[in-house]
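Lecture notes, continued. The same structure-token format from the folding unit now serves as the input rather than the output. Read the line below as a description of shape only.
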């Protein structure tokens, strides 16, 4: 069922807010509220508790459904409360939320990474080539950590409601730059606190249940229609196997050769390349700031076989790009 385009966008935005809020609430129950500090502690107990809680499907599902309904009815101001349409959307959202939780718990079950914080507030100051200083701030959907001896590895997770297709060029076109920027900001903020940390990856997770299928508690027999996490990951075999021990391409888009080393992939980066990647991000930021200053926002949408950013743009009606017409 479809309404007007304006209402569709409102429903989509509402769904995204509800799912983010439900996930934040559930992670708060098991991991508590955290912030970046000079002392970083991993809550392995919280991870085990959420995995164990999820084995009781009936009870855990009721928790997810209850939270989803609560937040949906708070935010769904555009729909008549109690209407058939509202009831239908709420049920659909409850199923989507449950599917999202199943995926996340499946990944946690197989991964050594531990969720550290949900909706973490981060900020960083960047000095550009022009001498200008720019302060960036944001809210990260989820930050995961893995302690390997004296090495603290950081992984950023960004939730997406739609399809989870990713290509590294999406970052430099500015369409999927958020997770990588957040990772750079977190590492910079930790350095300022005197904490040494290393970049493990910047990943996106689709929350829409129809795109990735998993069976909760199925272990290695669970099925997935593609890697659960999409994004960029450091080419360190120990770190990759901490995310997916067998490197079968089910949890991350990386598989291994017969000798056990990772197969070549454009989703992998060398750790010593990260500083250069951060400089490239600064260049992208400087470009956009220059556009703000001159008001030179020429239409330059990124459209590939898998990506049509005009489809989700709110400014199609006034855009001069032929792709938007």
């Amino acid at each position: 069922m479809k309404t007007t385009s304006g209402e569709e966008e409102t429903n989509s935005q509402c769904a995204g807010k509800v799912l983010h809020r439900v996930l934040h609430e559930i992670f708060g129950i098991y991991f508590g509220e955290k912030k970046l500090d000079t002392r970083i502690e991993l809550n392995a107990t919280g991870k085990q508790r959420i995995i164990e809680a999820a084995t009781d499907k009936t009870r855990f599902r009721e928790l997810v459904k209850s939270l989803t309904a609560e937040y949906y009815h708070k935010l769904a101001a555009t729909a008549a409360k109690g209407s058939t349409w509202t009831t239908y959307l709420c049920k659909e959202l409850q199923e989507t939320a449950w599917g999202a939780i199943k995926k996340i718990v499946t990944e946690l079950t197989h991964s050594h990474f531990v969720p550290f914080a949900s909706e973490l507030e981060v900020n960083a100051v960047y000095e550009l080539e022009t001498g200008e200083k720019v302060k960036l701030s944001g809210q990260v959907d989820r930050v995961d950590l893995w302690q390997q001896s004296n090495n603290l590895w950081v992984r950023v997770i960004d939730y997406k409601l739609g399809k989870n297709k990713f290509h590294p060029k999406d970052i430099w076109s500015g369409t999927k730059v958020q997770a990588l920027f957040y990772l750079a900001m977190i590492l910079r903020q930790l350095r300022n606190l005197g904490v040494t940390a290393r970049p493990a990856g910047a990943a996106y997770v689709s929350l829409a249940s129809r795109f990735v299928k998993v069976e909760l508690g199925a272990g290695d027999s669970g099925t997935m229609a593609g890697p659960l996490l999409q994004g960029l990951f450091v080419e360190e075999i120990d770190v990759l196997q901490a995310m997916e021990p067998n490197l079968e391409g089910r949890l991350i888009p990386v598989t291994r050769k017969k000798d056990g080393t990772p197969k070549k992939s454009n989703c992998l980066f060398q750790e010593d390349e990260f500083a250069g990647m951060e400089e490239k991000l600064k260049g992208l930021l400087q470009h956009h700031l220059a556009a703000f200053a001159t008001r030179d926002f020429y239409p330059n949408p990124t459209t590939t076989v898998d990506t049509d950013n005009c489809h989700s743009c709110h400014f199609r009606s006034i855009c001069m790009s032929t792709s938007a017409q």
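Point for the exam: Residues 5-272 form one domain.
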